[in-house]
Amino acid sequence: MSDELWNDIQHMELGRELFIPYHAYAGAFASNRLSHLGRILNPQTQSVERAILELPYQWGLGSQVHGHILDDRGIHSPYVSERTIEFIASTLGEVVAMDFNEETTTQITFIRVKVRIDFIEPLRFFRRVRFESREGAMNGFNYEKLQQVCTNCCRVNHQVSHCP
Fold first, then answer.
1. DSSP labels for 110-156?
2. Which of 93, 137, 138, 88 is nearest to 114 (CA)?
3. Interval 15-33 mean pLDDT
4. What does pLDDT average to over the chain?
5. Which of the listed residues 44, 114, 124, 159 has the most CB atoms within 10 Å of its CB?
6. Where does the Zinc knuckle CX2CX4HX4C domain start and stop, copy by copy (predicted)?
7. What integer pLDDT is reported at residue 71 of this predicted model?
8. Which pLDDT tens digit goes with each residue over 73-88?
C-alpha cells in the first residue's frame, strides 16, 4: 500500500509552473517592504518562538515590531495580494467571488475563492508558481461541496467504478 502511494506521489503530474509577473504582486511587495523574513538554521536546538520574542529587542526595536511564524506552504507573505490570488485562481476557472482581506494576510492559512469550473477538465489539486523575483511556491487546492470526484481521472460527476 505505501509503495503504491509512494509511486503515485513520485509520478504526480503538477503541470508547468505558473509564472506570476511583478505587476500581479507589486502592491503587496511594496506594502511589505519593511518586512524582514528570517529562517532558524538549527530548529532542533533553537526555539522559533523564543527568537521571535527576543530578536526585536536585540535589534533595539522592542515593541515597535511583531513577529509571525511562517511555514513553507503556499504563497510567501510578501506576495499575498488580491491580484496574486485572482491570478492563480483564474487558472482553475472563472473567478466568481473571493473571501480576502488585505489587512489580515499575515494571519490567514487559506483563502476561499469561488471559481466556476469546467466539468470536462480534470480538477487540479496542486499548482507550482514562480514569481518574477524567482521565488517559487507550491499551492494546494481544496474543493468544497463536490459530490462525486473520480479518484482515477480527477473529473467531477462520476465515481472511479464508472470512469470512462
1. --EEEEE--TTSPPP-EEEEEETTS-EEEEE----S-S-B-TTT--B
2. 93
3. 78
4. 79
5. 124
6. 117-164
7. 61
8. 677 777 788 888 898 8
Residue 63 pLDDT more than 60? yes
Average pLDDT score over residue span 12-17: 68
* Closest of 105, 88, 106, 89 to residue 97, by C-alpha: 89
| Closest C-alpha among 119, 117, 118, 137 to residue 127 | 137
∠159-160-164 over CA atoms, to 5°? 95
Q: In angstroms, rounded to a whole number, what is the distance separating the alpha carbons of residues 105 and 8? A: 33
Per-residue model confidence as pLDDT tens digits over 113-161:
999 988 888 888 888 888 888 888 888 888 888 888 888 888 888 888 8
